[in-house]
Specification:
alpha+beta; 8-stranded mixed sheet; 6 helices
């Protein structure tokens, strides 16, 4: 998790900024201020509220989530989660949405677009799905919904992610949606007395457009 995310999205050094004429128009950061409700066949993505903290506390504590989620910034407590989820709708440069079961309204996880870079029109994607949301396609549909929103409504050029090399369930989901492997950080993290790789994946706007055109 990226609780209390300290990512610096300030202007990069002048030497790294391409000439203005070569940079495609970036979406307005204000686009992230709109927290949509996205509805699929089996899931609904909605803005978070403070009342979601207790359920998310249970989900974050699930052994599979603990195993496959990158470590949080600092110690997690229910009070910290209440503060975190109470302020998600006020964030102007990121999008955090609750994943719910459309049939029951039950909260089963989250999807997030964050670390927005206006110069490359890039966001980092992350998600976590609790045990009651697994094995039913909710995570796959939730990923498609927020990725589609990122490309089609926010005007992103690239959405990227990282996952542990042994997180096979998540990798299958990302590949179904269209993400491709770009690289591997070999033995980048300790795991149970050994080491585990970190896999880098990404999806581009033109690739998403081709996938959605084929699906029609």
């Amino acid at each position: 998790m990226d609780l209390c995310d300290a990512h610096d999205s300030s202007v990069p050094p002048a030497s790294s900024v391409p000439p203005a004429s070569s940079v495609p128009p970036a979406p307005s950061v204000s686009g992230f201020s709109v927290k949509p409700r996205l509805t699929g066949e089996t899931t609904v993505l909605r803005p978070f509220t403070e009342a979601d903290a207790e359920v998310m506390w249970e989900i974050i504590g699930d052994p599979e989530v603990v195993r496959f989620t990158f470590p949080p910034d600092g110690e997690l407590t229910v009070d910290r989660l209440r503060s975190w989820y109470a302020t998600r709708s006020a964030q102007p440069d990121r999008l955090d949405l609750a994943v719910t079961d459309r049939a029951t309204g039950e909260l089963v996880g989250e999807v997030v677009l964050h670390e927005y870079d206006p110069y490359t029109r890039t966001c980092t994607f992350r998600t976590l799905i609790g045990p009651r949301g697994r094995g039913r396609g909710l995570g796959t549909e939730a990923t498609r919904l927020i990725v589609g929103h990122g490309f089609e409504q926010l005007g992103l050029h690239r959405i990227q992610l990282e996952l542990y090399g042994d997180n096979f369930r998540a990798r299958r989901v990302y590949e179904k949606v269209g993400f491709v492997v770009e690289g591997v950080r070999r033995e980048a993290a300790p795991r149970e007395g050994g080491w585990v790789d970190e896999v880098l994946m990404a999806l581009l706007d033109r690739e998403w457009a081709a996938l959605t055109a084929t699906a029609r």
